[in-house]
UniProtKB/TrEMBL annotation:
Signal peptide: none annotated. This is TMV resistance protein N-like. Residues 31-179 form the TIR domain. It comes from Juglans regia (English walnut). Pfam families: TIR (PF01582). The keyword Aminoacyl-tRNA synthetase does not apply. WD repeats lie at residues 198-228. Keywords: WD repeat.
Length: 280
């Protein structure tokens, strides 16, 4: 059954916006977790991985870290597999002894095979130093699987950190910013698909934006569309709270303008999350 534009926007608002709060945009919609942290516990659980988990948790991005999210009695592989398959972004924290752990490599292979967006972090190690070694615990098939996953992620743009000289607070800021950017990009792509299902009629456009309690949609007789952030619309400064505008004519459709408005709303979400990060 096709969902109405109003229901689509209300569902988006429930997951992405928090109209009753001080800042209308609070967090990224997610299943059980949005960000899976892949790491070697002995190396980084009490340092980088633990700090990054706490930072993302404060931003309400629902990170998953085995030592924090699992409880006695949970089946290890079942919970890990579910978390990886349901997450949106995987963060692989590579440390000097990362490749000694079969379990780390198993998680990495599953992340890559599930086609998740991956952000590698090279903590006190260079990509060229990461190699899968045959220590007798893995089958030939597993060694091939792990090597393929490792080679793929080694050639993915990531972040590097030297624990002896690096600025921890600055690194956490950079890492969380990269994660937020990737989450927002995935949301933009998903909403482009939804926008394609919205008819380019004014009633549908109005109904779509009616579900966004945090935003005000206005349309003038000449076809101009404007979207404002409600909390800033009435401020004295001209243009404050302004999100996007456009004018429908023969070359620009209403759907194109609405699409730009949604993209700006998502960018707005990233900016607010960034401001929350600075405050906290």
């Amino acid at each position: 059954m096709q969902r109405s534009p109003a229901n689509l926007s209300k569902n988006f608002a429930r997951k992405f916006l928090n109209p009753g709060g001080r800042n209308p945009i609070r967090t990224i919609p997610s299943p059980s977790c949005a960000v899976f942290l892949n790491h070697r516990g002995d190396d980084t659980r009490k340092t980088l991985a633990g700090l990054l988990y706490d930072h993302l948790f404060r931003l309400r991005l629902r990170p998953f870290l085995d030592s924090r999210n699992m409880k006695p009695g949970d089946k290890l592989f079942d919970q890990i597999d579910i978390a990886i398959r349901n997450c949106k972004v995987g963060v692989a924290v590579f440390s000097p002894r990362y490749c000694e752990s079969k379990f780390c490599l198993y998680e990495l292979a599953l992340i890559m095979e599930s086609k998740k967006r991956v952000i590698p972090i090279f903590w006190d190690v260079k990509p060229s130093q990461l190699l899968v070694k045959d220590n007798g615990t893995c089958s030939v098939e597993e060694l091939q699987r792990f090597s393929l996953a490792l080679e793929e992620v080694k050639y993915t743009v990531g972040l590097a950190f030297d624990s002896s000289t690096g600025d921890w607070s600055e690194f956490l800021r950079r890492a969380s910013h990269a994660i937020i950017e990737n989450l927002l990009e995935l949301e933009r792509r998903a909403w482009l698909v939804i926008l394609e299902s919205i008819n380019a009629h004014e009633d549908d456009v109005n109904a779509f934006f009616a579900g966004f309690d945090a935003f005000v949609f206005t349309s003038s007789a000449d076809g101009t569309i404007k979207v404002w952030r409600r909390e800033l619309q009435n401020q004295a400064l001209p243009g404050s709270g302004f999100v996007e505008t456009g004018k429908c004519d023969d070359s620009v459709s209403r759907k194109q303008i609405v699409s730009r408005c949604i993209m700006q709303i998502l960018r707005c979400a990233g900016e607010i999350l960034g401001m929350q990060e600075e405050v906290e």
